[in-house]
Design brief:
Elements (H helix, E strand, L loop, with lengths): L1 H94 L3 H13 L5 E7 L1 H4 L4 H11 L3 E9 L5 E6 L2 E6 H21 L1
Parallel strand pairs: 1-2
Antiparallel strand pairs: 1-3, 3-4
Helix pairs in contact: 1-5, 2-4
Length: 196
């Protein structure tokens, strides 16, 4: 019986020793896997953080760039508004010419136009109070036989100046048209004077 006890003890001891070896091996394997996973997690964490930092920098740059573009557009819009107001103001200044200055403008404009034949002068309501047949007779005398200007019954709605019309063809000498015709050429010069 003692042999059976000895044999049983030896089997139990061998099993205990194997159990200890298996546990140690499993513990080592567990530690190796955990260590590997911690390195992988650390590497993944660095990659995620670097990507997030790059995206944050890129987003910040986009936001700053967008804000700069918006500010530039608003500044440009404000400058264009100032330039538009200057041209509108020049039209108003022309509309406020004295009667004598307005007559001189009409006379010089007609005499410097290369017109022939009978022309109708079309005015607005306020200009009709200044330009009359007597005044046009003086201009017609200076034009001579090549052309003549007669006062049209038609009245148009424009701020100031006049229109010459012959056979449906018009020469637009309204203040709005004259200022607008110069706007493209003068806008750059006005901007330089104002904003430099």
């Amino acid at each position: 019986m003692s042999n059976i006890n000895n044999l049983t003890s030896k089997i139990i001891k061998d099993a205990e020793d194997k159990k200890e070896v298996i546990i140690q091996t499993a513990e080592k394997e567990k530690n190796r896997i955990l260590s590997k996973k911690q390195v992988e997690a650390s590497t993944a964490e660095k990659i995620i953080i670097e990507k997030a930092e790059r995206e944050a920098v890129s987003r910040k740059e986009r936001i700053i760039s967008g804000a700069k573009l918006q500010a530039r557009n608003e500044k440009l819009e404000a400058k264009q508004e100032v330039i538009r107001e200057i041209f509108e103001s020049s039209i108003e200044t022309l509309c406020n010419l004295s009667k004598d200055d307005f007559k001189e403008f009409v006379k010089e404009s007609i005499l410097n136009s290369d017109i022939v034949g009978e022309q109708n002068i079309i005015l607005n309501d306020s200009s009709k109070k200044i330009i009359n047949k007597t005044f046009l007779a003086v201009i017609n005398k200076e034009l001579g036989a090549k052309a003549s200007v007669i006062l049209s019954e038609e009245t148009r709605n424009f701020k100031g100046g006049f229109i010459l019309e012959k056979d449906g063809i018009e020469i637009n000498n309204t203040f709005e048209a004259l200022v607008n015709s110069l706007k493209d050429d003068l806008s750059i010069d006005v901007a330089i004077m104002l904003f430099n």
